Amino acid sequence: MPASNLIRLRGPYAPVLTPFKADLCIDTGRFVEHCRWLESQGMGLAIFGTNSEAASVSLDERIELTEALVAAGVDPMKLMPGAGLCAIPEAVRLTRHALSIGAPGVLVLPPYYFKTPSEDGLFAYYSELVEQVGDARLALYLYHFPQMSQVPITVALIERLLKRYPDTIAGLKDSSGDWDNTRTMIERFASHGQGFSVFPSSESTMTRAIPLGAAGCISATNNVNPARVRALFDLLDAKGDASEIESLQRDVDAVRSIFQRLPMIAAMKSTLARARDARGWNIVRPPLQSFDESAARDLDAQLARIGFELAPQQA
Predict the structure, then answer these.
(1) Which is it for the CA torsion 158, 163, 164, 165, positive or negative?
(2) Residues 6 or more apart in contact with residue 210 via CB below 8 angstroms
(3) Residue 2 has pLDDT above 90, yes or no
(4) Residue 269 annotated as catalytic
(5) Residue 113 annotated in active site
């Protein structure tokens, strides 16, 4: 049975892009606008994920942005803040803050700087985080992204953490890009109603993943194609018409395939900049680089060929 104190998170989430001003300060107003638009399109908000440029956003900036969202009326229950930092005191502070504003879960990378840490070392990291936060409300989602973090989240580690903290370890985002790994995680931990939510990192896997018991997806391109991804999830969740599901899956795959061939953060920001007539959306923090005009025009042409248009923001 699911752990009694956990809210089992489900649905599609966007790892929300972070807009910057010309001086590289965060554009808080534009961030709030984008989050409110995503929320209106049916997205959960995985703020401070990889595509948020989270590694380039300071601890204080993350806290200030989270508070700005809540002050603007964004539902804290829609938030899944990224709280994975190498320094345990910083991860503890960020996690406590997420709990204080009412977020129902945090997404936590392993300590990614260190070379091939042992399973015991990773278990100790997550244990220290749980123990030092010391809050029964904590629902911790593990973040498996080995090609970036260089530190995998293994089946054995998950089993150890679930045995020690069954009321706290709530799920996992699998960004491995390996369908066999995603399927293993779903079948081992999420398909029997234990309250463990597995989120693949691409909407392109949803037709396979949701029927097996996946909770949704946390996908970069949910930043630009939220309504269609939400519609696909809802159809799958309701076991809807197979032909309609197939058609929607083709549509979201077409969008995803264009962006995933490109530097995704810069590409998505370029699309938002043009659709919103807001040049500031093009700005990324170094070491990333923005799209130049030639690359932006080529991206626009590719999206036009598949009939893609970004949904407008509400006035």
Answers:
(1) positive
(2) 216, 233, 236, 237
(3) no
(4) no
(5) no
Residue 213 lies in a domain: yes
In a domain? residue 5: no
Over residues 143-157, mean pLDDT: 87
| Catalytic entry in 125, 126, 141, 173 | 173
d(C-alpha 201, C-alpha 220), whole Å: 8
CATH number at residue 159: 3.20.20.70
DSSP string for residues in 8-37 = ---EEEE-----B-TTS-B-HHHHHHHHHH
Residue 66 lies inside a defined structural domain of this protein: yes
> Within its chain, how far is the Cα of 128 from the centroid?
24
Residues 62-73: pLDDT tens digits? 999 999 999 999
Name the active-site residue from 13, 78, 143, 269: 143
Is 218 marked as a binding-site residue? yes
Q: pTM for this one? A: 0.94
How far apart CA 61 and CA 69 sit, in angstroms, is 12
| Residues 85-140: tens digit of each pLDDT | 999 999 999 999 999 999 999 999 999 888 889 999 999 999 999 999 999 999 99
17 part of a folded domain:
yes
Number of CB atoms found within 10 A of residue 166's CB:
14
Alpha-helical segments (H) within the chain: 28-40, 59-71, 88-100, 119-133, 146-149, 155-164, 179-185, 206-212, 226-237, 242-260, 264-275, 293-305
What's the domain range around 138? Answer: 11-224
Total domains in the chain come to 1
pLDDT for residue 5: 56
